[in-house]
Design goal:
It is a single chain. The protein is of the alpha/beta class and 313 residues long. Helix content is 25%, strand content 27%. The protein is built from eight helices and 17 strands. The strands form four sheets. It has a seven-stranded mixed β-sheet.
Length: 313
């Protein structure tokens, strides 16, 4: 722990926030941790603690998991702890104005985008889906808006063509933890400048919906590829053939043109090529029927009756 360590309350929920909690527990005094309540999971619908809850217990930290911060007991509890700062990473619960006023130095949030671009709950996925070639983390001083506070620090990260939501999630999770630590320490020393966000350049990263995974073959093969990368692992992308759901696990755009209706199967000779919008072609490399194992295209075609000219919905 550092000589001038901060007394902080950490608020976070998913795996993304774990490196940040570990960093602050190492260098500062974490008074307690707030996370979302346990949720029913699996066939038995047993309550499952959040990744941050589990990590906090490993670090022997006191954990609170209210469903809302507007509960009457929350404000007195936080006031009693008298934190210097709240550190918030992907908490998923709105912090009321009254709570933001409690810490001496305010609340800072680590967000997985280059704000004001991609405010909201799914910044990593929406950046990849849009075909962005860079993303990053933004550390901001929180206000009552949704990811609207002034920026303390930003770090950029290139999105490579082979990157997907899983790989960017892992990279940004680590970058955000270092960035948060640096920003909080510089903020404490008064060696950081607050930069107001340009609201006219803001975009919103809406929450992912399961139905978004259904492929619209009218899109270009590049757009479909971006969705495949963005929606990994959830909700994934899928198509339908004769009402049967087929999940596309991997594939890529092919440098080839066509003059067929989007969704048309172009060949079934060891390779599964699908006609897409803008006269582009997508090659499916691995695929999965509902409840079945993942197969490469050659294995799939061997056991399926799908002829060239068939149409995927």
């Amino acid at each position: 722990m550092m000589k001038n360590s901060l007394k902080i309350i950490f608020m976070g929920t998913p795996e993304f926030a774990i490196p940040s909690l570990i960093e602050f527990a190492k260098y500062h005094h974490v008074l307690c941790v707030f996370t979302q309540p346990p949720k029913p999971f699996g066939r038995g619908m047993n309550l499952k603690k959040t990744p941050i809850h589990i990590q906090a217990e490993r670090l022997n930290l006191k954990v609170y998991s209210p469903s809302s911060l507007t509960e009457k007991k929350i404000k007195p509890l936080l006031t009693q702890y008298a934190p210097d700062m709240l550190i918030v990473v992907a908490y998923g619960i709105i912090l009321p104005k009254s709570i933001l006023k409690i810490p001496k130095l305010g609340a800072i949030n680590g967000h997985a985008s280059l704000l004001p671009k991609w405010r909201g709950s799914a910044p990593i996925q929406r950046a990849i889906e849009a075909g962005d070639t860079e993303t990053g983390c933004s550390i901001m001083l929180m206000d009552s808006g949704l990811d609207t506070g002034p920026i303390l620090l930003q770090k950029k990260l290139n999105i490579l063509k082979e990157d997907d939501s899983i790989s960017i999630h892992k990279k940004l999770s680590n970058i955000t933890s270092k960035c948060l630590l640096e920003a909080s320490e510089r903020f404490l020393k008064g060696k950081i400048k607050l930069t107001k966000q340009n609201n006219s350049k803001a975009s919103y990263a809406k929450k992912l919906r399961k139905e978004e995974g259904q492929i619209k073959w009218e899109l270009s093969s590049n757009q479909i590829y971006n969705k495949m990368r963005a929606f990994k692992p959830y909700p994934g992308i899928f198509t339908k053939y004769k009402s049967e759901k087929l999940k596309i696990i991997s594939g890529k755009p092919l440098n080839r043109n066509h003059e067929f209706k989007p969704g048309t199967v172009l060949t079934t000779k060891n390779e599964l090529l699908i006609a897409c919008g803008e006269n582009s072609v997508f090659i499916v490399q691995s695929i999965q029927k509902e409840g079945k194992k993942i197969l490469n295209s050659k294995e799939f075609l061997r056991g399926s009756v799908i002829n060239s000219g068939a149409i995927f919905d």
